[in-house]
Design a protein that fits this description.
The complex is a heterotrimer of chains A (291), B (797) and C (158). Chain A folds into 3 domains: 47 residues, Uridine Diphospho-n-acetylenolpyruvylglucosamine Reductase, domain 2; 114 residues, Uridine Diphospho-n-acetylenolpyruvylglucosamine Reductase, domain 3 (2-Layer Sandwich), CATH 3.30.465.10; 111 residues, Enolase-like, domain 1 (2-Layer Sandwich). In chain A, 36% of the residues lie in helices and 25% in strands. In chain A, 58% of the residues are buried. By secondary structure, chain B is an alpha+beta fold. Classes of the chains: A alpha+beta (291), B alpha+beta (797), C alpha+beta (158).
Chain lengths: 291, 797, 158
């Protein structure tokens, strides 16, 4: 399990990374935290000709809030986001979700951008960014562009990132104060990729009607799925068991799970529906207590 | 009953929680595992493995690999077969069984994914792996026999053309009159149990370094093995080299669990590469390879039924254990599925039996040793069936067990099949476990949870663990081409310190510590004065079999006690000369020898050592041989059977089928407990493996014979989050046939723990009448059982 | 062939400098390049945790970092824990509580627990279990490791 021969270049800043990508073309691979790429290379399933290491691009290591948006640099370590008070105050779902991403040592090294660019459909962070309607910020030779999460994730391990572009950051809308959040993950073991993960954020208006719902699932499609129909079913009315049932009933149509060695598609479908109910209920309970 | 003379010893260390002598260097990062060993001029090898489950090799072209810079040699099966015989098999339990043997590298046909087909040796492992990619092999695919049903189908493709079918052989044991028993029974319960493929998966993969010196005609081997003497004998067999020209050394083992008992093709491949290159060759199995190249185990179907009277008395047991073997025999052949049949009656008196083992070949990796060695599946049969019977009869699960135990005075107890259990107080052990369940408040926890609508259950498993494998002649009789005795040398040196040489291996279980405890107590010296040497066939004695079958403590321990006793007598004779006293009047305490009951003059073992080795004049008694050394060979007259009652508290999520393990306890009897801390460690570690096997771990094959779980992302070892806390309680019923009364303990957990999970899940879902019969019990599988039970219940309501 | 690069790093207080291929993992560099074989390789895919080391104050999987990436880093491996020939309190606690059997996972466990205890001086058993869930042990059943870490935490507080 030794990686194949590869060249190595260390980028000092984003411009340099883009220049290296442009120079080496699609055989080049950007090396972020390495928690997915290096195992693939050790199995010799990935064999880039050159690694462009962006671990020392300090400008991509930040967590800050401006104008109602939480902005996270692509090279921010997952553990730093998990323990960031700025992130927790702005998007309280983040630390809860990150606890399910691998283990502490993986998160020490693993980056937010790396997980998003890798686009594993079972991973938690892509689902969170999709569910919250986040935007991915990418930079290429022609400058910076912003891609909504639902357009960014195209298929398993496939994103809208062009070969000469680098993911530089992600922007998440701040959740209003009093938002209740919940995440539930069905995994074979703690820290594993989810068979199904579901996450919810819910906010109540002063009249206690639901005025904001965000629901997402991972592990049940080739991309993370934001559950728009379920969100719609919950929005506007008072929280109720019936409303949650109605929301959950829309889940099956929104996802396309596949069989794998850990669970058949039918199980994933059922569990997606169940977990959506559970997180919606939990988030509602928490939002009510905060209102 | 054979009576063995008790050995005189004090018990300053035995029975206490002595910290391990092995630990400081391991904690400091100074351990030396196989990949840490570097031999001068060493080069490194890697193995190319078959991507197909069944195929003919039509062409191999190694020219590109051979030309790759840094490559020393490339080896194919044809090359290997000119200097090496086929991989040896040592277990032949089924008379007239067909034995499927193969070379370490496939010669013309592959029969499992991952079978070794070629090897490269190069300057380092990176380059060796590069060169593997340059070997071109043409395969002609053959029809695949992917699982048991496919293998037994009437028109099944055959793995071996000259066999009539895919069945290697079968063997039936009968006792009493099973047909009459079943005909007269009030109740018959039956089930088809399945245990998926799993393996021991030591955290350190296997490895070796072999230096074949063709000028000296010698083979110098570093090998991560539990059985260096066996490996040495088998290397001699494979290569036709005299045994005394082969040296096998074993560094620290990063776990063994039976997987490192077996003898593998890689040590043969490395040897041939060394012979051809004139260089020492290191060959380390990496994690990816481990899933296909280390022995698989557990894979079995067991179709069994139990006949009972309405009062819960078991009348009979019958059934078939299908061993789902791989594409060729591993070292231990069909031994483990056979052992399931030998132990399928467990701790119960069952007068009438008709039990069969059937060994079947499939296009999967070879079957081999894994801690428990078939007995975990025997346990599934008796423990699951007795609980199904209790349910049908409306009996308490512990009462029905108690009713069928042999009483303490019925030992030695012949099971009716092969084993004679030496001693046991089964009912006491069961009571101990149930009393601890009460003490720990599990029943209240269960009641509270149920009141909250949560499904919490308590599971039980009563197990027996035949340990201390010997006796040699019996092992030979039942088909082992090897022995079961153990030999040790206990040597006191010229300054009165002691070295023990043993053929057993220290693979994490703390053998060095317990041997030092026993020797120190027997000789009356401080433990610090004892060093234990294992893992070198040039300096250490022979042990039959190897370190497997829970042998190291009872057999090695007995041999140390017996040798130590004789050495102690000699020490006293010499001390008597020095003290001008009679040996009978002397005692040894903390290395000081003095006249009992006096505070007068004493001499130390240092003085005795000096008198025996250096300044003999007027100090070593006339007629006494110089030196202080005793050798003992202990071949037990019977095995020692440990046993225990395990209980588990679980919670089941009925909506997802997930199982959380909340708490676990085990009441256990392994005779004399040498070191309770280490015994508990053995029990806990073994249980964790069983819990993994019951819920998480499975080597899953698809219909093409491809392994779908060939990484740590998919083969799921339990983590600290999945495994519950443990509580252990000991009762000590000394083994009557083993000096010191020690029974083995290493396999208790794996044997007990799988059926245990089934029992606990069943209890959590008792209102539904779920019966878990297939392991691992994954969330989708359990949810299916729950839904079936729910619809059954609704249907009948 | 990929060209070799010169890397230099400080491991347990000693500076190691070598030319290495970019593909060489940090784990192999430490084990074979520096002779510090206490860092073990159990999977080379970042799951088992046996190769856990501390790089610039944080634990990482040494099998998932390339040696060239660690150029200029300050690293602690298991060999850097003992004080001279005395085990540190965490190592002592593992010894006293039978927190190891074969010892193969132990270096990784010790490194993970070292980082954890620094940030969590008064952990619960459940927190210790979560912290250690990224380190596989096949021998102990974990309970004794959890006890070892809790024991060390108590001793370090005292």
């Amino acid at each position: 399990m030794k990686p194949p021969p590869v060249k190595y270049a260390r980028a000092g800043d984003v411009q340099e990374a883009i220049a290296l990508l442009t120079e080496h073309g699609s055989d080049a691979k950007v090396l972020a935290g390495g928690q997915s790429l290096i195992p693939l290379m050790n199995f010799r399933l990935a064999r880039p000709s050159i690694l462009i290491d962006i671990n020392r691009v300090r400008e991509l290591d930040y967590v800050r809030e401006d104008n109602g948006t939480l902005a996270i640099g692509a090279m921010t370590r997952q553990r730093d986001v998990e323990t960031s008070s700025v992130a927790a105050a702005s998007v309280p779902l983040l630390p809860e979700v990150l606890r399910h991403v691998g283990h502490i040592t993986n998160r020490n090294r693993g980056t937010v951008g790396g997980s998003l660019a890798h686009a594993d459909p079972a991973a938690e962070l892509p689902a969170l960014v999709t569910g919250l309607g986040g935007e991915l910020v990418v930079q290429g030779p022609n400058g910076v562009r912003t891609i909504p999460a639902e357009d960014f994730f195209m298929s398993t391990f496939t994103t809208a990132l062009e070969p000469d572009e680098v993911l530089i950051g992600v922007r998440l809308p701040r959740l209003p104060g009093g938002t209740g959040v919940a995440v539930e993950e069905l995994a074979r073991r703690h820290g594993d990729f989810a068979i199904v993960a579901a996450m919810a954020a819910v906010h109540l208006a002063p009249d206690r009607s639901v005025d904001l719902v965000r629901l997402a699932v991972s592990g049940v499609d080739s991309v993370p799925v934001r559950l728009h129909a379920a969100e719609d079913a919950l929005t506007g009315g008072r929280p109720s068991a019936e409303a949650i049932e109605a929301a959950a009933a829309t889940v099956a149509d929104a996802i396309h799970p596949a069989d794998d060695v850990h669970a058949p598609a039918s199980y994933r479908r059922d569990m997606a529906q169940l977990l959506v109910k559970r997180v919606a209920k939990a988030a509602l309970e928490r939002s009510e207590t905060k209102s | 009953m054979t009576i063995i003379e008790p050995v005189e010893s004090q018990t300053k260390y035995t029975g206490t929680r002595v910290r391990r002598t092995e630990d400081p260097r391991l904690l400091a990062g100074r351990g030396q595992y196989i990949d840490d060993v570097t031999v001068p001029k060493m080069i490194e090898a890697a193995v190319l493995r078959s991507p197909l489950a069944h195929a003919r090799i039509t062409n191999i072209d190694v020219s590109r690999a051979r030309a790759h810079p840094g490559v020393f040699d490339v080896l194919t099966g044809q090359d290997l077969a000119t200097v090496a015989g086929q991989q040896p098999v040592i277990w032949f339990p089924i008379p007239e069984q067909r034995i499927a043997k193969t070379h370490a590298l496939a010669v013309d046909q592959v029969r499992w994914v991952g079978q070794a087909v070629a090897a490269v040796v190069a300057v380092d492992r990176y380059v060796a792996e590069d060169a593997l990619e340059l070997i071109d092999i043409d395969y002609e695919p053959l029809p695949v026999v992917a699982d048991l049903d496919a293998a037994l189908a009437p028109d099944a493709p055959k793995l071996y053309d000259d066999w009539p079918d895919n069945v290697s052989g079968s063997l039936t044991y009968t006792a009493g009159d099973p047909d009459a028993a079943f005909a007269s029974a009030d109740l018959v319960v039956s089930a088809s149990f399945r245990h998926g493929r799993a393996f021991g998966c030591p955290l350190e993969p296997r490895g070796c370094i072999v230096n074949w010196d063709t000028f000296a005609g010698s083979l110098d081997v570093w090998l991560s093995t539990q059985s260096p003497n066996l490996a040495r004998d088998l290397l001699a067999e494979v290569f036709g080299i005299p045994v005394h020209k082969i040296r096998v050394r074993t560094p620290n083992l990063g776990g063994g669990f039976g997987n490192k008992f077996d003898f593998y093709g890689e040590e043969v491949i490395a040897a041939v590469l060394s012979r051809r290159t004139g260089r020492p060759v290191k060959l380390i199995e990496d994690r990816a390879e481990s899933f296909v190249a280390t022995s698989h185990s557990r894979d079995q179907r067991l179709d069994f039924e139990m006949a009972l009277r309405s009062d819960g008395t078991i009348l009979g047991l019958r059934g078939v254990s299908y061993g789902v073997l791989g594409g060729a025999f591993g070292t231990v052949g069909s031994g483990p599925p056979w052992a399931s049949v030998l132990t399928c009656m467990g701790p119960y008196k069952i007068p009438n039996m008709d039990v069969t083992v059937k060994a079947v070949m499939t296009n999967r990796s070879p079957y081999g040793s894994y801690r428990g060695w078939g007995v975990p599946k025997g346990n599934i049969v008796h423990e699951r069936l007795i609980e199904l019977a209790a349910r049908k009869l409306g009996m308490d699960r512990t009462e029905i067990r108690r009713k069928n135990f042999p009483a303490p005075e019925e030992f030695p107890f012949f099971t009716g099949v092969a084993f004679t259990y030496d001693s046991g107080r089964y009912a006491d052990c069961l009571d101990l476990a149930t009393s601890k369940i009460d003490e720990l408040g599990w029943r209240e926890r269960q009641a509270r949870a149920r009141a909250e609508g949560r499904s919490v259950g308590i599971g039980y498993s009563f197990h027996v663990e035949p340990s201390a494998y010997g006796p040699s002649r019996i092992l030979n009789l039942v088909g082992l081409a090897h022995s079961g005795f153990d030999e040790v040398t206990v040597r006191m040196d010229s300054i009165g310190k002691v070295t023990i040489y043993s053929g057993q291996i220290n693979m994490g279980q703390g053998t060095h510590t317990i041997y030092a405890q026993l020797a120190a107590d027997t000789l009356g010296i401080p433990m610090d004065d004892v060093v234990v040497i294992t893992g070198d066939t040039d300096s250490c004695p022979y042990t039959g079999y190897g370190t497997g079958g829970s042998r190291a403590a009872p057999l090695g321990g007995a041999a140390i006690l017996r040798a130590g006793e004789r050495l102690r007598a000699k020490i006293l004779r010499i001390a008597a000369e020095l003290l001008e006293a009679s040996p009978e009047d002397l005692q040894i305490q903390d290395g000081q020898i003095s006249v009992k009951g006096t505070t007068g003059r004493s001499v130390s073992t240092r003085d005795v050592g000096d008198a025996a080795y250096r300044r003999l004049l007027n100090r070593l008694p006339e007629g006494e041989t110089p030196t202080l050394e005793e050798v003992d060979v202990f071949d037990p007259p019977n095995m020692a059977t440990s046993y225990g009652c395990t209980a588990l508290l679980v919670e089941v999520d009925r909506e997802t089928g997930t199982v959380s393990l909340l708490d676990c306890l085990q009441a256990h009897d392994c005779g004399t407990v040498i070191n309770p801390m280490l015994v508990d460690g053995q029990l806990a570690g073994g249980l964790a493996q069983a819990l993994g096997g019951a819920l998480l771990e499975e080597l899953v094959y698809d219909e093409e014979g491809q392994l779908k779980t060939a990484s740590f992302m998919d083969y799921l070892l339990p983590t600290a989050m999945e495994i519950p806390p443990f509580h252990f309680y000991h009762q000590e019923t000394p083994a009557p046939d083993i000096p010191g009364g020690i029974k083995g303990v290493g396999e208790a957990g794996p044997i007990a723990g799988v059926s245990l999970v089934g029992s606990a899940i069943d209890d959590a879902l008792s209102d539904l009448g779920v019966a878990v019969t297939r392991f691992p019990c994954t969330p989708p599988r359990l949810l299916e059982l729950i839904r079936e039970a729910q619809s059954r219940k609704e249907g009948s309501a | 062939m990929s060209d070799k690069l010169t890397v230099s790093m400080t491991i347990n207080g000693h500076t190691y400098t070598a030319d290495c291929e970019p593909r060489l993992t940090l784990a192999d560099f430490i084990r074979h390049g520096c002779g510090l074989t206490g860092t073990h390789l159990g999977c080379e895919q970042g799951v088992c945790g046996a190769c856990t080391i501390i790089v610039d104050g944080r634990t990482v999987r040494a099998c998932l970092v390339l040696a060239v990436q660690a150029d200029g880093s300050t690293i602690t491996t298991v060999e850097g824990l003992a004080r001279g020939d005395e085990l540190n309190p965490l190592q002592e606690a593992f010894w006293a509580n039978h927190g190891l059997q074969c010892g193969f996972c132990t270096p990784g466990m010790l490194m993970s627990a070292t980082e954890f205890l620094k940030a969590n001086p008064e952990p619960t058993a459940e927190e210790v279990r979560e912290c250690l869930s990224g380190n596989l042990c096949r021998c102990t059943g974990y309970d004794s490791i959890v006890k070892s870490v809790l024991d060390a935490a108590q001793k370090l507080r005292a």
